[in-house]
Design a protein that fits this description.
Shape of chain A: flat
Number of domains of chain B: 2
Order of helices and strands of chain A: HHHHHHHHHHHHHHH
CATH class of the largest domain in chain B: Mainly Alpha
Strand content of chain B: under 5%
Strand content of chain A: under 5%
Oligomer: heterotrimer
Chains: A mainly alpha (about 300), B mainly alpha (about 280), C alpha/beta (about 450)
CATH superfamily of the largest domain in chain A: MetI-like
Distance between the termini of chain A: 32 Å
Distance between the termini of chain B: 35 Å
Largest sheet of chain B: none
Largest interface: A-B, 104 and 109 residues
CATH topology of the largest domain in chain B: MetI-like fold
Shape of chain B: flat
Number of strands of chain A: 0
Number of strands of chain B: 0
Number of helices of chain A: 15
Chain lengths: ~300, ~280, ~450
């Protein structure tokens, strides 16, 4: 009689104590995860918090505590906030374009359309490629004499050729396109998994009632996907704001600070400038921002329910 | 009238799918084509078709220079163990968080969430210190455990969303039948969550397969290194051997595609079992 | 209820078993694969006891030289009976690996250090690398200026208090302009430019003939290195050091003229397209493809060019041309290419020193130079011209003109501002004035923080 483990069960007087015990016994379920989490995730975070109050250089253990100095420097640093701004642009572009494409693709391939199995495999290929390779490939595409300009010339749009990564007007968007290209696959499989969970009979009932495809999408698919949508949005925001590999491989933040992003700044402070303490403070500031952002997202989606 | 509309709709759908297919696989095609070229050809012949007849020498060179027989084996071992543990631990944890009455579940969940958010500079360095304090430096287990830990937050986050969404009816019926909470997890929740679990398997296989920084810091012996080590051999301080890099990458991509195809089957099975859900 | 408990315990036990199983598979990974290459070689030297048991671990990041280093290590084993385990860790992560290992006092016996003097200074202060006074007898085998790079004395700008010499150079390098002789001849230029104005005239002529004049890795650290010769030419080394320390004003120092040279090149249309985010390998590829006539590059480029296209040999080297209004001679950035350092906690100190000595012997250095196309550190090997291409020889002559003390900002972030500023100047999106002001703001901030 494991019934008492559910909050919905009406508890008799005697089972109340059992229920409390049960509440703690249920912790066994999270124990393995929690143990690993504490060792390898929480401890490093605590260390980071500790370092953020020091002038640690990453090597020498004889560091001094400097109070809130690093935090003060961090929040008054305009270049940092510009980098955050770039991250927000990445996030907005990804939310709008990447996730829309991913949603449409997943809806299309979730139907019995011919070749849907093939498409599902193909659409997940970009995320499979390793960061190094993707960086090289996109650099080749964007090069002044690269593929994109070659293509434009071939189709008679030679006047639109451009130095995509090396100009301040396009660099940010060029990097965004490459990272969204790789990110579509991830959102796609999450949406797909969500779609698989929608009972088929809902659609059958709807088509008997004469609902059009669009109406089915509007009144069945999208409402059923709301939870998954929140999930995908949060993961997208985290991914886009935390973008590193594509920037590192293609522009290193340049030209100037045009494509500077938070993760690159943190990396540079830690490993180029040996300001580990400073880098830690940036991380905490950034982490707190992301955490609040995600909470807002979660709260918003709960309100709709 | 309606038929033509449906036909046009279908046509547009197909066209879009084909366009995105091209966009998706173009870099892969390019990668493979480069891997079949000679070194001096890479920057002179920009077409997709190699000058000479297919040149598989690069694959041979990449395989041996990159020591891929060692690294592939290592990565297969790491992926299998990590993914298995992540699926087990994350599904247990997220089931308890989503479905059971449990002490401190909010704190635990937000704890996991927080690690998802904070980009720790050189997290691998902190992890390395913990691992070596445990006496596990330069061992496989010392690499596997942090990888599991790193994968848990996202996996729990995703699975919890799916568990949250399931209706309570089946569960309540099972409770009346006298099923324990673990039996419900095992017999009801896991089968229904198949598509989500398949997603977890895919995402985590991928991240283990592409992990390199932690391995680089943890291992002082090359023979324990994962497959990404094989790639790094071709990317140099001064020069990059593109043709070998691309051959090596092609070698590396194939197993993951395979896992993905297998997991797709789980998706399909998920549909049939998911039907009982509503 | 009981059943439920049992299941839970089962689960708990299961996870414990799994953890144990995991640990189990780690234990077999610990037994070192001592595939004993039976050491039947004659042990001709006997200053190390029990050589058969000594095994050195050597880390490096030089993936183009992995085979060569392994070959040298096996020669060393032949000679001394000391086995050296050569481990290559390529890619950008090597520096992080060193940082992590240093925190844990787990550095290898010998390694090639990746990073500058400031970075090494941190390891020195943390007690991770060995002071090399015991190898003093070797020091005169290298150009004295070279050893200075990683020697910390009471004047050192990095705040290192453990004075001494901490690295032995395996090779040396410097950075200069490299030009395509055929493309120059094509537009009627017969000799390399010696003044800045000549360079600009050459740029114009190349440009007029439809040849892209110049490329380099402006998108990376190279921007700062290319500025260095002109920092010295306009400010002189002494003033430069003071300016970087904050003892003299940056804005009034004449530094503006350094930045204006980058603007000159922009105004004359010298830069290749995409210069602002270009890295050195991309520029080198263009140079080897003969798409660009000049490149600012290091002596190691000779090896790179050779690897990209062995048939491309019609290029030569010239030092950064001096501007007419510069008060001092131009000097070039350079120094130790690959520094060898020894772990302070090594259990095989004697063997480690012996290995380092071996690597910088004349014979090994000649082999190294001819196979890797890098400048040997050992003077005897450097002066004997055997195995050196003319361009490499010209690079080697450059070693007499390297900047001895270019100073250092209190925080490398000022260098970042310079680098980013040059990127924008190179595409006409910023001006020398503006960049100088930004550098000054950053410098003042860094000075304030140091106090």
């Amino acid at each position: 009689m494991g019934a008492s483990s559910f909050p919905s069960t009406k508890g008799k007087f005697k089972s109340k104590r059992k229920q409390v015990r049960k509440r703690y016994l249920n912790l066994t379920y999270v124990l393995p995860a929690l143990l690993l989490f504490i060792l390898f995730s929480l401890l490093p975070i605590i260390r980071t918090v500790q370092y953020s109050f020091t002038n640690f250089n990453g090597v020498n253990k004889n560091y001094d505590y400097v109070g809130f100095k690093n935090y003060l420097t961090a929040i008054t640093d305009t270049r940092w906030w510009e980098a955050v701004g770039n991250g927000i642009i990445f996030a907005l572009l990804s939310l709008v374009f990447m996730n829309t494409i991913a949603l449409l693709l997943s809806v299309a391939t979730n139907s019995n359309i011919r070749g849907s199995k093939f498409y599902r495999v193909v659409f997940y290929i970009p995320p499979i490629l390793s960061g190094i390779v993707v960086g090289y490939i996109w650099k080749w595409i964007y090069e002044p004499k690269g593929l994109l300009n070659g293509l434009l010339k071939d189709i008679g749009l030679g006047e639109y050729t451009h130095v995509w990564l090396g100009s301040i007007d396009t660099a940010l968007y060029a990097v965004a396109v490459s990272s969204m290209w790789q990110g579509v696959g991830g959102s796609f499989i999450l949406f797909l998994a969500g779609l698989q969970g929608i009972p088929k009979d809902l659609y059958e009932a709807a088509s008997i009632d004469g609902a059009s495809r669009f109406q089915q999408l509007r009144y069945i698919t999208i409402p059923s996907l709301r939870k998954v949508y929140t999930l995908v949005n949060i993961l997208t925001i985290l991914g886009a704001l935390g973008i590193f590999n594509h920037v590192y491989a293609m522009t290193m933040g340049g030209p100037g600070y045009t494509t500077e992003v938070p993760a690159l700044r943190i990396y540079r402070e830690a490993f180029t400038n040996s300001n580990f303490g400073m880098a830690s403070a940036f991380s905490i500031v950034f982490g707190v921002m992301l955490f609040i952002l995600s909470l807002i997202q979660l709260k918003l989606s709960q309100k709709k329910d | 009238m309606r038929n033509t509309g449906a036909l046009i709709f279908k046509g547009i759908t197909h066209l879009s799918l084909i366009i995105w297919t091209i966009i998706s696989i173009f870099p892969l095609v390019w990668m493979i084509s480069t891997s079949l070229k000679q070194r001096n050809e890479i920057f002179t012949n920009r077409s997709l078709i190699p000058n000479n007849a297919l040149n598989f020498e690069n694959y041979k060179d990449a395989w041996f220079q990159g020591d891929f027989n060692i690294y592939t084996f290592n990565s297969v071992v790491y992926s299998l163990i990590v993914v298995f543990c992540v699926v087990l631990f994350a599904s247990l944890a997220s089931y308890a968080i989503a479905r059971l009455d449990m002490a401190g579940k909010k704190v635990i969940f937000f704890g996991f969430m927080a690690t998802l958010m904070i980009p720790i500079p050189g997290a691998f360095i902190s992890i390395y210190i913990v691992v070596s304090n445990l006496g596990l430096a330069n061992t496989r287990i010392g690499y596997i455990l942090p990888l599991i830990a790193a994968a848990l937050p996202v996996s729990i986050f995703i699975l919890k969303a799916f568990f949250d969404d399931m209706s309570r009816e089946l569960e309540e019926a099972a409770i009346i039948d006298g099923a324990s909470s673990f039996q419900i997890y095992y017999k009801i929740m896991l089968p229904i969550a198949r598509p989500a679990l398949a997603t977890i398997v895919i995402l985590n296989t991928l991240s283990v397969w592409n992990e390199f920084m932690l391995a680089l810091v943890l291992f002082s012996e090359n023979r324990l290194m994962p497959i990404q080590m094989g790639l790094s051999v071709f990317v140099g301080q001064y020069t990059t051997q593109y043709e070998l890099l691309m051959a090596a990458s092609t070698i590396m991509v194939l197993p993951v595609v395979l896992v993905y195809i297998v997991m797709q089957k789980q998706f399909i099975q998920g549909i049939t079992s998911g039907a009982i859900k509503g | 209820m009981i059943q439920d408990h049992r299941v839970k315990w089962r689960m708990f036990i299961l996870s414990i078993i799994m953890l144990i199983a995991l640990t189990g598979c780690s234990s077999n990974s610990k037994d070192t694969t001592s595939n004993d290459k039976n050491m039947t070689q004659t042990n001709d030297q006997t200053d190390v006891t029990n050589k058969k048991d000594v095994k050195l671990v050597f880390w490096h990041y030089l993936n183009d030289r992995d085979d060569l280093l392994k070959e040298m290590a096996s020669d060393f084993e032949q000679k001394t009976g000391i086995k050296v385990d050569v481990q290559l860790f390529g890619g950008d992560g090597f520096k992080q690996k060193i940082m992590a290992s240093a925190q844990n006092n787990a550095l290898p016996d010998v390694m090639t250090f990746a990073g500058g003097a400031g970075d090494l200074g941190q390891l020195v202060e943390a007690g991770n690398v060995m002071e090399l006074s015991d190898m003093k007898d070797m020091f005169d085998k290298f150009p004295s200026t070279i050893l200075k790079t990683f020697t910390f004395d009471n004047n050192n700008i990095f705040g290192v208090k453990k004075f001494g010499t901490y690295a032995i150079p395996m090779d040396t390098n410097n950075m200069q302009f490299v030009y395509n002789t055929k493309l120059f001849e094509k537009v009627g230029i017969t000799s390399a430019p010696t003044t800045w104005d000549e360079l600009l005239t050459d740029v114009d002529r190349l440009k007029a003939a439809g040849i892209v004049p110049f490329a380099t890795g402006i998108g990376s650290w190279v921007a700062g290195s290319m500025a260095a010769p002109y920092e010295v030419a306009y400010l002189g080394e002494e003033k430069l050091v003071n300016v970087k320390k904050g003892d003299e004003s940056l804005v009034d120092s004449g530094y503006l003229k350094v930045l204006q040279r980058f603007e000159d090149l922009y105004k004359h249309g010298a830069y290749a397209e995409g210069i602002a985010t270009m890295d050195l390998p991309a520029a080198e590829q263009m140079f080897v493809n003969e798409e660009v006539a000049m490149i600012f590059d290091g002596s190691w480029a000779i090896g790179v060019f050779n690897q990209m296209n062995p048939n491309f040999t019609h290029y030569d080297v010239f030092q950064p041309p001096k501007p007419a209004d510069a008060a001092y001679d131009v000097k070039i950035p350079g120094g130790i290419g690959v520094p060898l350092v020894i772990d302070n906690h090594t259990k095989n100190k004697e063997a480690a020193m012996q290995f380092v000595r071996f690597l910088v012997e004349k014979e090994q250095q000649q082999k190294y130079a001819s196979k890797s196309f890098n400048l040997p550190a050992n003077i005897e090997a450097a002066t004997s011209e055997s195995g050196m291409t003319p361009a490499l020889h010209n690079f080697s002559l450059g070693m007499n003109h390297i900047i001895e003390n270019g100073g250092s900002y209190p925080d490398p972030s000022v260098e970042t501002v310079l680098q980013k500023g040059i990127q924008l100047i190179a595409i006409g999106q910023s001006t020398p004035d503006k960049v100088l002001k930004e550098m000054d703001v950053e410098l003042q901030k860094a000075l304030k923080e140091k106090k």
